[in-house]
Amino acid sequence: MSAVFRFAGPKVLRAGLSILIVVTFTFVVLRASGDPALQILGPSARAPDLEAFRRHWGLDQPLYVQYVRYVLAALHCDFGNSMLAGKPALQLVFERVPLTLALMLPALALTMLIGIPVGAYAAMHRDTWVDRSVMMLTVFGFTVPSFVLGLLLILIFSVTLGLFPSGGADRPESFVLPVLTLGLGGAAIIARFTRSAMIEVLSQLYIVAASAKGVTWRQVVRHHAFPNAIIPVLTLFGLMLGGQVAGAVLVESVFGWPGIGQLLVVSVANRDLAVVQVILLLVALTMTSANLLMDLLYGVFDPRLRGTNSGSQ
Amino acid sequence: MKTATVETNRPPPRSVDLPTLLAGGWVLLMLFTALAAPLMAPYEITSIDLRHRLAPPVGFGGTMLHVLGTDDLGRDVASRLFYSIRTSLLVAFGATAISVLVGTGIGFIAAYFRGLVEHALLLMIDVQASLPFLIVALAMLACFGNSLTLFVALMGLYGWERNARLARGLAITASAQGYASATRQLGAHPLRVYLRHILPNSAATLLVGATVTFPEIVLVESGLSFLGLGVQPPMTSLGVMVAAGREYITRASWMLLAPSLVIVITAVAVSVLGDWLRDKLDPTLK
Asked: How distant is the Cα of A204 from the closest Cα of chain B, in angstroms?
């Protein structure tokens, strides 16, 4: 048990510390962006009113008191109200979460379903024309920015062919283009990564040994090569999540998808800071826990890592 | 583990393959366009020609008057494209320079002090990893408003953590080598050791790092500008043009296609070129 704790403990601690720093960052940025009293009451407010406002919200207290109060409020999920909608910022954000997840989860599934088989296939047919053309395609896949890809897909499938709607979230077909846009870029990265992981594994001695003892090639690939190649691909997911979140912001904007990304862009344009802050924290929390999970899963899949503290290198 | 073979004779220089040549040609063309935009552009980017609104490009029913057609206000798409390339590359150059400078500085500091400073750096890298840059940039723009200077400075934060990690690694390797300890034992100030000796010896690898950062900044910039939060009108950038073209996607697809193709081809070309450069300059980075 203590071995598990020694492996997981520092990672959990670091994750917690990262979140605290993100909270601190939002506090500093929020304070540095101007006097909230002036922002909310407007420049024409009278001095006594400003004074009363500051006293009411505790803005006349020393900065460290404000900071502690802010962190405590955040721990109680109190992030203030959206200036635009007048509703609690947290509620506003959570209303949009299912819609964004409805895009991201199928896109992640698509990423895996396309990326891993394609990469593995290319690795097993290394240096053939199939491999070369697949790799050339993946270069396009991961260099073309998602908003350009989305608009090109709209141009082809909505405007020219009229197959799918170009935006909105009301029909089942509406999912197709945004999910494709979000998934294809990731699939290209996964494919390249799976390919190199697979090539690396196929050159190992235990593959030679397995082939030599008479195991069929199909079995070698399925039981020896693939499980070993898939471990590094798994960790890539933690890293790719960030790209997916950033991609979702752009893709939602392209397709008029009413998710968190669109809310973020609108809130930024209107300087609705409470909402921006909640989204920032939500993203940081999601990504930190995803990375933590991947780190821990890595320990489960690869028992050699448990003893060493490789995460802090 | 394969055994390393010492090469006494350098292998004969491989001829550059066709994709790399094409990529190089395209990147040079882009750089030339960025520099010569005022000479190449037939019109001012803000000059309005209302009689030729949404005119199609040559070959699609358009005239030589506007080679790539015009936008919804009758502004010349080709001229706007040249200036957009100029703006996008300018922002990316400035931001990459900042990113490499800041990253190298932080990396060297971490390598010199080690201990607590190094742990603080690793923690900051963790924090950076927990927030996609686009989201951080959006939050900062929400709080501080937007100006071109601020925007370039903000984009300069992109990739600092990768450059810092690279610089730290290089500095640690270098300090273990003879020349660094020799100068140190001769009594040189650490600043001198780092700036006059370690920096020039790490420059090639840091430069390769910059070629990775540069195209990514182009993409982030165009993304932010596409969202209307990056480069602001009347200035124009590739992302600004894509955003404008999106409104007329059914009636004037050239408004969208011209900047999109430039973004796509440039991104692919830089990626191909970067691979080649990486193999050429520093095979260990592969």
From this structure: 10
- Domain with residue B151: its CATH number is 1.10.3720.10
Query: CA–CA separation, B107 vs A38, rounded Å?
Result: 40
CB of B27 less than 8 A from some CB of A:
no
A198 in Cβ contact with A123 (< 8 Å): yes
The amino acid present at B111, given as its one-letter code, is A
Residue B197 per-residue DSSP state: I
Residue B40 lies in a domain: no
Residues in chain B closer than 8 A to A18 (CB atoms): 123, 126-127, 130
| pLDDT tens by residue, B14-31 | 567 888 899 889 989 999
Domain count, chain B: 1
Residue of B nearest to A19 (CA): B127
Could you write out the three-class secondary structure of B50-72? HHHCCCCCCCCCCCCCCCCCECC
Helix, strand, coil % in chain A, rounded to nearest 5? 80, 0, 20
**In this prediction, what percent of chain A has a pLDDT beyond 90?**
0
Q: Coil, strand, or helix at residue A176?
A: helix
* Cβ pair B227, B49 in contact under 8 A: no
Residue B281 in any domain: the answer is yes
As for the ipTM of the complex, it is: 0.79
Residue B32 lies in a domain: no
CA B237, CA A229: separation in Å to the nearest integer? 42
Largest CA distance in chain A: 88
**DSSP secondary structure letters along B209-266:** HHHHHHHHHHHHHHHHHHTTSSSPTTS--HHHHHHHHHHTTTT-HHHHHHHHHHHHHH
| B37 lies in some domain | no
Give the global pTM: 0.80
| DSSP H helices in A76-88 | none
CA atoms within 13 A on the CB side of A236: 21
Q: Which domain holds residue B93?
A: 69-285
Count of CB atoms situated within 10 Å of the CB of A289: 14
Q: What is the pLDDT of residues A6-61, one digit of tens each?
A: 777 777 888 888 888 888 887 777 666 666 666 666 677 777 877 887 777 667 77
Yes or no: say if A260 and A248 are a contact pair by the CB < 8 Å rule. Answer: yes
